[in-house]
């Protein structure tokens, strides 16, 4: 089957750096995505890694190691507005259709 | 146009009512999705439409009935819902079924 594991909660201080890990188990692998969701809002796409290595987009970076079935989201210079839930996600392909499955989410709380 | 729109934003209905949720995208995406999300949980996939045809039904009760009138529109018809169906209903679209998904703002549904 397919599964993704990520920590349920992470707390960090404003201005600091935080890393949210995700390990996955899938039959067939295409890439790892990250989504951010603020309370009351909809998930928004942050990043996608299909190949090993680090992808940087402003204060956010995402890393993938296909050999370790592992990735992480790195948030730098944390701001209060970064308080949100973060989901890792992978596409899976079945015999007749494809879909994306989400991890259970990591709730990031930022302290002043 | 790079957004997914959903109406209504909020909906309160009784268990005997019939209502519909609407979703629209004009990005030319060929895959559209309905998700249900409870508080502090990841989005839970309900239905996937690919090229206007239902490709995945995640064993959703028949009181939820999806419809895809054309490539830009997706409806979710609701009938005889239960209080436990109260949740945030999210629509999403993607270029293909394993590509990055773009979410609408959601409909907050309350069943009395």
Sheet having the most strands of chain B: 7 strands, mixed
**Number of continuous helical runs of chain B:** 0
Shape descriptor of chain B reads globular
Radius of gyration of chain B: 13 Å
How many angstroms separate the termini of chain A? 41 Å
Fold and architecture overview:
- The complex is a heterodimer of chains A (112) and B (112).
- Chain A is 0% helix and 59% strand.
- By secondary structure, chain A is mainly β.
- Chain A is globular and about 50 Å long.
- In chain A, strands 2, 4, 5, 9, 10 and 11 form a six-stranded mixed β-sheet that branches. Chain A has a five-stranded antiparallel β-sheet with strand order 1-3-8-7-6, with no helix packed on it.
- Chain A has strands spanning 3-5, 9-13, 18-25, 32-37, 44-49, 53-57, 60-65, 70-75, 84-93, 98-102, 106-111.
- Chain B is mainly beta.
- Helices cover 0% and strands 57% of the residues of chain B.
- Chain B has no helices and eleven strands.
- Chain B has strands at residues 4-7, 10-13, 18-25, 31-37, 44-50, 53-57, 64-70, 73-79, 87-94, 102-103, 107-111.
- In chain B, the strands form two sheets. In chain B, strands 2, 4, 5, 6, 9, 10 and 11 form a seven-stranded mixed β-sheet that branches.
- In chain B, a hairpin with a 2-residue loop joins strand 5 (44-50) and strand 6.
- At the A-B interface, strand 5, strand 9 and strand 10 of A face strand 5 and strand 10 of B.
Which terms summarize this structure?
heterodimer; A: 112 residues; mainly beta; six-stranded mixed β-sheet; five-stranded antiparallel β-sheet; 11 strands; 0% helix; B: 112 residues; seven-stranded mixed β-sheet; four-stranded antiparallel β-sheet
Q: Could you give a short description of this structure?
A:
The complex is a heterodimer of chains A (112) and B (112). By secondary structure, chain A is mostly beta strands.
Give the secondary structure arrangement, pairings included:
The complex is a heterodimer of chains A (112) and B (112).
Chain A: E1 3-5, E2 9-13, E3 18-25, E4 32-37, E5 44-49, E6 53-57, E7 60-65, E8 70-75, E9 84-93, E10 98-102, E11 106-111
Chain B: E1 4-7, E2 10-13, E3 18-25, E4 31-37, E5 44-50, E6 53-57, E7 64-70, E8 73-79, E9 87-94, E10 102-103, E11 107-111
Parallel strand pairs in B: 2-11
Antiparallel strand pairs in B: 1-3, 3-8, 4-5, 4-9, 5-6, 7-8, 9-10, 9-11
């Amino acid at each position: 089957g397919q599964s993704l594991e990520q920590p349920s909660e992470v707390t960090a201080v404003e201005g600091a750096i935080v890393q949210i890990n995700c390990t996955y188990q899938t039959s067939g692998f295409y890439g790892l995505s990250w989504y951010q969701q603020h309370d009351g809002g909809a998930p928004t796409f942050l990043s996608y890694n299909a190949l090993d290595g680090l992808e940087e987009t402003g204060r956010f970076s995402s890393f993938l190691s296909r050999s370790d079935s592992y990735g992480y989201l790195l948030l730098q210079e944390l701001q209060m507005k970064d308080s949100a839930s973060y989901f890792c996600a992978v596409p899976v392909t079945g015999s007749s259709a494809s879909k994306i499955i989400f991890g259970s989410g990591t709730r990031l709380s930022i302290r002043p | 146009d790079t957004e997914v729109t959903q109406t209504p934003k909020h909906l309160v209905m009784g268990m005997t009512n019939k209502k519909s949720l609407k979703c629209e995208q004009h990005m030319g995406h060929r895959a559209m999705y309905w998700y249900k999300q409870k508080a502090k949980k990841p989005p839970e996939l309900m239905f996937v439409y690919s090229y206007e045809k239902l490709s995945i039904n995640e064993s959703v009760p028949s009181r939820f009935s999806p419809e895809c009138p054309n490539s830009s529109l997706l409806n979710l018809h609701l009938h005889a819902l239960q209080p436990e169906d109260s949740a945030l209903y999210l629509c999403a679209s993607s270029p293909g079924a394993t590509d990055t998904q773009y979410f609408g703002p959601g409909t907050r549904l309350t069943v009395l």
